[in-house]
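Q: I have 423 residues here and want to know how they pack in 3D. Can you give me a structure?
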Amino acid sequence: MTYEEALTYIHSVCWKGSIPGLSRTQELLAKMGNPEKNMKYVHITGTNGKGSTAAMTASILRKAGYQTGLYTSPFLWRFNERMNVNGCDISDEELAEITAEIKPLAESMREHPTEFELVTAIGFAYFARHKCDIVVLEVGMGGAMDSTNVIPAPEAAVITNIGLDHTEYLGSTFAQIAETKSGIVKPGCQAVLYPSRPDVEDVVSRVCREKGVGLRIADFGKIYSVSRDFSGQVFDYGSYRNIHLPLLGGHQLRNCAVVLETIQALRQQGWVISDENLYEGIRDTIWPGRFELLRRDPIFIVDGGHNPQCLEALAENVREYLADREIVALTGVMADKDYTDMYAEMAPLIARFVTVTPDNPRAMQASELAKFLKQFGKPAQAAPTVEQGVLDAMELAGKDGVVLAFGSLYMTGAIRETVKNRV
């Protein structure tokens, strides 16, 4: 099997299976010899901030000398980004080999695995091959019934910022969603929580009590911002002083506070992680596509935020970093997203829009989005491709202007590639 054949097979698998739950993943992994059972994990769920929290945690664990796996989704540019060991993405050859090994096992099942379940199984096989000491494992959606939740008790179960998303699957209230996401908490682990609404904290606290699990809640009152610019930010958190974080925005300071509490939880579990490992790991974190500065002439920032909570954070960042600047927005969106509230949040900060169609079957057409955006009283024009949209937005902004690309992760890779090739 070639790399291209592997991707074709993976993407040909139906996203949705007919039986909810973990049974398909468990059956497939059993046929594989249960590679997931021989590794330790940091399991991360939440509505927003999962990826950056995972990236920072994995970077610190690598600095501490541990063979560290990282499993995230979705990818920005290449499928291989979804799984890496010690910062190196899975190779084309190894992805093809593992997929070829798993394919006959998956096809022997009465109920075939979904695409995400298949990718998760590939990830477990890959991490086991590389004898990972610990895997930082991002939940795909939810928690209790997510296919990543087949693992034994993690070392730390981390719940990041919770919002109302995927309500048709996870519940219609914050408390219901918190209950679902708390499904990753298991006896024997330590739990870490991003501070939230009282009903969310009540649910998580109750689950932890019932399972005899210690709970650490990050204290945002301990965050003190020292400095910030487009190269990153420096902040204090409690006794930690002058932490250098390359990720931009106040929301990333809050995510980093959760990471710091996660490291404390891991230390409590016996993992040896020095303060030097912690500082260096945060400093060297790479997590592209999240309020990321791609160039300075014009200033071109890309952000993959795609739900109301993400857009609140993006608006906060615009006010902090781009106050009083005229902004050209390059934007595309999935038609099934809550885009009305999303654009209502951002429109007052935007001078004009250039719309594109992200590379996804669920994407809203650029012309339809441009028509919708005109209701905000700002000029809006559609581009035939993402690449042309980048060029149009940069021309409109001029050398001293600002382009802000946002709306969907599915266009972020193409935007980054186009801008990079023009620098």
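Q: Anything worth noting?
A: The chain has a mean pLDDT of 92. The two ends are 37 Å apart (CA to CA).
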